[in-house]
Design a protein that fits this description.
There is one protein chain. A hairpin with a 6-residue loop joins strand 5 and strand 6. The longest helix is centred in the first third of the chain and has 20 residues. 42% of the residues lie in helices and 17% in strands. By secondary structure, it is of the alpha/beta class. It contains nine helices and seven strands; from the N terminus they run E-H-E-H-E-H-E-H-E-E-H-E-H-H-H-H.
Length: 219
C-alpha cells in the first residue's frame, strides 16, 4: 500500500521570508492557494492508494476531509521533519509499505509529476528524491519502508537524506522534475515563477496582486 503524505503548518504564519514583498494576509492567501493546488493534484493520482494530511490547522483538516483524504492530527508541531516522521509512522501502522512526502508549496505541481515519482519506486529498502531548484533541498521523497531513515528537512537536506539512506543501506534514485523543483520561499522563487508565465491558480493570484511590479520596485 502506497501513501502520499502532505504536512501542513498553521498558514497564518506562512512564508515569513516573503515579508518584504507581501502582507501577512497575502502570504496566507498564497500559502492556501498552493495547498489547494497540491491536494487537488494528489487527489487525482491513480498509482497511490491513499492520501494523508498531517496537520493541526483546522482549515487544512476541513479541506482534506472534503477531498476524502485521511487526516493525521498532530498535538504539536515542532518541525517539518518531526511532522513527516510522525505521519510516516502513523501510516505504516495503517499498512503503508511506501510513503511519498510532498510539500504544500509547489506552485506548478501536477498529478503527472506525482505519478512520475511513484513510477520511479525501487524495491525496499529504498528512497526516491526530487531536489529543489538549487539542487540542495529535498522537494519530494518517496521512502520504502516509510521509516527507513529519519527526515532531515532544512538547509542541504538532499545531501543529508542521501547520507541517511546510505547509512540505512537503502537504494537511492534522484530524479529531476522542474515543476516539483520550484517551491516558493523567497522573492527570487516568485520571480522565477512569473518569468515562466505558467497559467496556474498560484500564478493568477500573483498577477492579481501585481507582484511583478513589486518585484521591480524591490530590485
Amino acid at each position: 500500500m502506497r501513501y502520499i503524505l502532505i504536512p501542513v503548518k498553521d498558514l497564518s504564519q506562512a512564508k515569513q521570508r516573503l515579508a518584504t514583498l507581501m502582507t501577512p494576509e497575502e502570504r496566507q492567501r498564497l500559502a492556501w492557494v498552493m495547498l489547494e493546488a497540491t491536494l487537488a493534484a494528489a487527489a487525482k493520482v491513480c498509482n497511490a492508494d491513499r492520501v494523508a494530511v498531517v496537520t493541526l490547522y483546522q482549515p487544512a483538516i476541513a479541506l482534506a476531509e472534503a477531498y476524502g483524504m485521511e487526516v493525521l492530527l498532530e498535538k504539536q508541531q515542532f518541525s517539518e521533519s518531526a511532522s513527516v516522521d510522525f505521519g510516516s509512522r502513523a501510516v505504516k501502522q495503517r499498512g503503508a509499505s511506501a510513503v511519498l512526502r510532498l510539500p504544500a508549496d509547489l506552485p506548478l505541481i501536477t498529478t503527472e509529476d506525482i505519478e512520475t515519482i511513484l513510477a520511479h519506486s525501487l524495491p525496499a529498502p529504498s528512497a526516491v528524491m526530487v531536489p529543489s531548484r538549487d539542487g540542495r533541498g529535498t522537494n519530494a521523497i518517496l521512502r520504502s519502508p516509510a521509516d527507513v531513515f529519519p527526515s532531515h528537512f532544512g538547509p542541504d537536506s538532499l545531501a543529508r537524506h542521501l547520507r541517511a539512506a546510505a547509512q540505512a543501506q537503502a537504494r537511492t534514485r534522484v530524479i529531476l522534475l522542474p515543476r516539483i523543483a520550484l517551491d516558493i520561499d523567497e522573492p527570487e522563487d516568485i520571480a522565477v515563477l512569473m518569468e515562466q508565465g505558467c497559467v496556474t491558480p498560484v500564478y493568477d493570484l500573483l498577477v492579481e496582486m501585481n507582484i511583478s511590479e513589486r518585484l521591480k520596485a524591490k530590485s
